[in-house]
Design goal:
Blueprint: H1 7-17, H2 21-28, H3 37-51, H4 54-68, H5 73-89, H6 93-106, H7 112-128, H8 132-149, H9 152-169, H10 172-189, H11 192-208, H12 212-226, H13 232-248, H14 252-269, H15 272-288, H16 292-309, H17 312-328, H18 332-348
Helix pairs in contact: 1-2, 1-3, 2-3, 3-4, 3-5, 4-5, 5-6, 5-7, 6-7, 7-8, 8-9, 9-10, 9-11, 10-11, 11-12, 11-13, 12-13, 13-14, 13-15, 14-15, 15-16, 15-17, 16-17, 17-18
Length: 359
């Protein structure tokens, strides 16, 4: 019997829809007809992004766009949106905006679905850029529209995005409410991956509000959902979030173990910003244990990575923590300059990171 040359593409689509991007990649390893090279590259990019391989996904999306040319505008639009999502996830908001500009040029003018997808991604780019009030304004009508449609996965996602923007704009109680509602919506939709990310948001906001039992339970539940699955980014995030809670509870050896597991996963994904947050967390562990030279090394590594990525919140947190280490090591004048820079930078970016003593 002759093998269907298009079967690998069909299998890959089915596996992506079933939440198994790892199996989709395996299906795409088979040779496909030259005429499907653009779609094959696109599906490979989608599978890589779903696992957290954002930089490898970017390369695959670009290959898809080269091979698609102008004949498939719908798929080219999805590829540009994929590029924007990867760049936004990596904190590269300038690249994300450029991809969004190209996506808008490809979008059909009479498609309400395309307009909503573009509006949502625009809001998420504003959120990633630290423009939280602008993001909240853009997300509000999208939340209302998804509620009218009774699309509970969409409701959960928009509430998740809203909760993050509220948290970093300083509305902690509002953020806590959003993440609880996001989790309820994802549960209503039967969306387990969505539930995991709502639990991440819930764990983060509960932690910074001092509700450590709630935070630990949320991260543990998210970890259970994602355990052994293909979402490597989510698994890394779960370890890092749990480590943050354990650190705040004074359980520093346990926290260090989870940070190191998170670090290994993020390193495999080449996720430099999130690696820097793990470095910052490990620096905090060393500081609490009085291991000041080790704390300084970790915090300087975090500060360098955050500065290179223009991650304003990470820069502020690293400067503030490093100032504490330098003061403890007797370098008070240097510490004062660094602490002042942390406050100035946070305020200039519209952040409250300099007040996050609870973090």
């Amino acid at each position: 019997m002759t093998r269907d040359p298009f079967a690998p593409l069909e299998t890959a689509r089915d596996r992506l829809d079933a939440g198994r991007p790892d199996l989709a990649l395996a299906a795409l390893a088979a040779r496909a007809p030259a005429a499907t090279a653009g779609e094959t590259a696109f599906l490979r990019a989608e599978a890589l992004r779903a696992q957290g391989y954002f930089r490898r996904a970017q390369a695959a999306y670009r290959e898809a766009l080269r091979r698609l040319g102008r004949e498939d505008r719908d798929l080219a639009l999805e590829a540009e949106l994929g590029l924007a999502r990867c760049a936004r996830s990596l904190g590269e908001t300038g690249d994300a905006r450029r991809a969004m500009s190209r996506a808008r040029a490809l979008a059909p003018r009479d498609s309400a679905e395309a307009a909503e997808s573009l509006a949502l991604e625009d809001a998420l780019v504003e959120r990633a850029a630290g423009r939280y009030l602008k993001a909240l304004t853009a997300l509000a009508p999208l939340l209302a529209a998804s509620r009218r449609r009774r699309d509970w996965s969409a409701v959960g996602f928009v509430l998740w995005a809203t909760g993050g923007a509220r948290r970093f704009s300083g509305d902690l109680a509002g953020s806590h409410r959003d993440f609880k509602e996001s989790l309820a919506a994802f549960r209503r939709a039967g969306d387990r991956e969505g539930q995991a990310y709502a639990l991440f948001g819930l764990g983060g906001i509960a932690r910074v509000r001092g509700f450590f039992a709630e935070a630990r339970a949320a991260y543990a539940a998210a970890r259970t959902i994602l355990s052994g699955g293909p979402d490597l980014f989510g698994r890394a995030y779960a370890h890092c979030g749990l480590a943050n809670v354990l650190r705040q509870l004074g359980r520093w050896s346990e926290a260090e173990r989870h940070y190191r597991r998170s670090y290994a996963l993020y390193a495999g994904l080449d996720d430099r910003v999130d690696l820097a947050y793990v470095d910052w967390g490990l620096g905090q562990v060393h500081l609490k244990r009085g291991e000041l030279p080790a704390a300084e090394r970790r915090l300087r590594a975090a500060l360098a990575a955050f500065s290179a990525a223009r991650e304003a919140r990470g820069v502020a947190l690293s400067r503030q923590s490093l100032a504490q280490v330098l003061h403890a090591r007797g370098r008070t004048a240097e510490a004062e300059r660094l602490f002042d820079a942390a406050v100035r930078g946070a305020r200039a970016a519209g952040l409250h990171a300099h007040l996050e003593i609870y973090t």
